[in-house]
Automatic annotation (TrEMBL):
<dbReference type="InterPro" id="IPR018151">
    <property type="entry name" value="TF_GreA/GreB_CS"/>
</dbReference>
<protein>
    <recommendedName>
        <fullName>Transcription elongation factor GreA</fullName>
    </recommendedName>
</protein>
<dbReference type="InterPro" id="IPR036805">
    <property type="entry name" value="Tscrpt_elong_fac_GreA/B_N_sf"/>
</dbReference>
<dbReference type="InterPro" id="IPR001437">
    <property type="entry name" value="Tscrpt_elong_fac_GreA/B_C"/>
</dbReference>
<dbReference type="Pfam" id="PF01272">
    <property type="entry name" value="GreA_GreB"/>
</dbReference>
<feature type="domain" description="Transcription elongation factor GreA/GreB C-terminal">
    <location>
        <begin position="82"/>
        <end position="156"/>
    </location>
</feature>
<dbReference type="Pfam" id="PF03449">
    <property type="entry name" value="GreA_GreB_N"/>
</dbReference>
<keyword id="KW-0804">Transcription</keyword>
<dbReference type="GO" id="GO:0003746">
    <property type="term" value="F:translation elongation factor activity"/>
</dbReference>
<dbReference type="InterPro" id="IPR023459">
    <property type="entry name" value="Tscrpt_elong_fac_GreA/B_fam"/>
</dbReference>
<dbReference type="InterPro" id="IPR022691">
    <property type="entry name" value="Tscrpt_elong_fac_GreA/B_N"/>
</dbReference>
<keyword id="KW-0805">Transcription regulation</keyword>
<dbReference type="InterPro" id="IPR006359">
    <property type="entry name" value="Tscrpt_elong_fac_GreA"/>
</dbReference>
<keyword id="KW-0648">Protein biosynthesis</keyword>
<comment type="function">
    <text>Necessary for efficient RNA polymerase transcription elongation past template-encoded arresting sites. The arresting sites in DNA have the property of trapping a certain fraction of elongating RNA polymerases that pass through, resulting in locked ternary complexes. Cleavage of the nascent transcript by cleavage factors such as GreA or GreB allows the resumption of elongation from the new 3'terminus. GreA releases sequences of 2 to 3 nucleotides.</text>
</comment>
<feature type="domain" description="Transcription elongation factor GreA/GreB N-terminal">
    <location>
        <begin position="4"/>
        <end position="74"/>
    </location>
</feature>
<dbReference type="InterPro" id="IPR028624">
    <property type="entry name" value="Tscrpt_elong_fac_GreA/B"/>
</dbReference>
Length: 158
């Protein structure tokens, strides 16, 4: 069984989503199904079919979250240090063409959000950064072509 790396914050977010689905969404959809059943013939009852479809989606997400949480490997980012890029590192990158700086933290797949500066460990840029050190240059092939970056800073903060 493959372990899924994630930060403590990512684990907490997934736990909160699972709790919300189990304690609020699931009972709500059960009530909606019961209400729709009261409207009579189920074969032509659009409300019933929509509620059953929503229930299927909720139950699928609950199973997915439970599986991911069960296989998760929570990595304490604050216990890691050094100049080498590893999971959980926050990296300040400088585009070697434009000198524009961007800061990313390498996180698990379910935590990633480019808008919030959280880069998935499976992203090509993250894979190119792993094992590199502050001061190193990397080249990454992107859909828009090849891009070169310099690693300006590597820190480990949660």
């Amino acid at each position: 069984m493959e372990r899924i790396p994630m930060t403590a914050a990512g684990f907490t977010r997934l736990e909160a989503e699972l709790k919300e689905l189990k304690s609020n969404a699931r009972p709500s959809i059960i009530q909606a199904i019961a209400t729709a059943r009261e409207h009579g013939d189920l074969s032509e009852n659009a409300e019933y079919h929509a509620a059953k479809e929503q229930q299927s989606l909720i139950e699928g997400r609950i199973a997915e979250l439970a599986d991911k949480l069960g296989r998760s490997e929570v990595i304490d980012v604050t216990s890691i240090s050094g100049d080498q890029v590893k999971f959980g590192a926050t990296i300040l990158l400088a585009d070697e063409d434009t000198d524009e700086e961007t800061r990313y933290q390498i996180v698990g797949e379910d935590e990633s959000s480019i808008e919030q500066g959280r880069l998935s460990i499976t992203a090509p840029l993250a894979r190119a950064l792993i094992g590199k050190e502050q001061g190193d240059s990397i080249e990454v092939t992107t859909p828009g072509g090849s891009k070169a970056y310099e690693i300006v800073e590597v820190t480990y903060v949660d």
